[in-house]
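Subject: mismatched residue count in predicted assembly?

I count 348 residues in my input, but I want to confirm that the predicted structure covers every chain. Input:
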Amino acid sequence: MLDVFGWTQYRKHILKARVTTAGFHRRVRGRFGTLAEPDLLINDIRPARYGALVLPGGFHGHGFDEAYDARIYELARHIHHNGGYIVTMCVGILPIADAGLLKGRRATTYPYSRHDNITRLQAGGAIVVDDPVVVDNRIISCRGPAASLEVVLLLMEMLMGGETVREVRKYMLS
Amino acid sequence: MLDVFGWTQYRKHILKARVTTAGFHRRVRGRFGTLAEPDLLINDIRPARYGALVLPGGFHGHGFDEAYDARIYELARHIHHNGGYIVTMCVGILPIADAGLLKGRRATTYPYSRHDNITRLQAGGAIVVDDPVVVDNRIISCRGPAASLEVVLLLMEMLMGGETVREVRKYMLS
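Triage response: the counts match. Full output below for your records.
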């Protein structure tokens, strides 16, 4: 998200979009070593300010379990009910299923896991589809991390239109 | 690098590779907001320990200029002369040209820039090629950020073989 949407700040003549990072902790270390210090704590997010919620995946047993939290469900419902988009990668879709936003809707998730992601998605009422990227009712899901770039560009297209995406693709050589 | 090579630690039955991050500062903020705290400072790197040097790109005028440093040139020469690989993204190839490692060799770089990347590459004796990814004499260059995933997988193939790459691609859904 930062690497793609950052170009909208850099290029003067295209629309601007601002990304706010949020988390349960002031400092977060990814399973493979990446580091983040969220701009805001989840409790301090005012959902009316945002046009989209992006929920990346992670590893169950290594921090992702925290995403199954009533505050995440409420945040997702609020933003979606206001007409906003939900974008998820890998298991990021599972809390969205738990939030009740996928009843009768198509979605996909990460297929290789010690946890039964497919069953959890179905338990939330989703119609599980085996496609790399699925879009239904302003909710985007993808099977795995390699699709993250395309999914973020898809959100950009929905929020800002195809011309912005073409410009960012040009500068990213995508 | 972290997100791809991290899978070699996660999957028990494949070869392991360890990534050490290094920088001129203990804390580095990317142009678009990403954060890193390098494992080691450049001065503390012992080049004989590494089979590859990965030099990502960046923005001239926003920190990347620091990469034109005798310590980077020496590190690149040492690792390459020992039979190691050099992997670069975007303008990451330019300090490698300055280090004298590209004389008569094919390479590519980021084409959209206020700085004249192509001329600088040619000044280092490189044959500039307009391909997304170029490999010559164990030195990999690519035009832009969107190729980063493929370039890192290419390094993994050179270091660890195609079977490891197939396994990591499977888990990344790539």
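Chain B has a mean pLDDT of 96. Marking this ticket as 'not a bug'.
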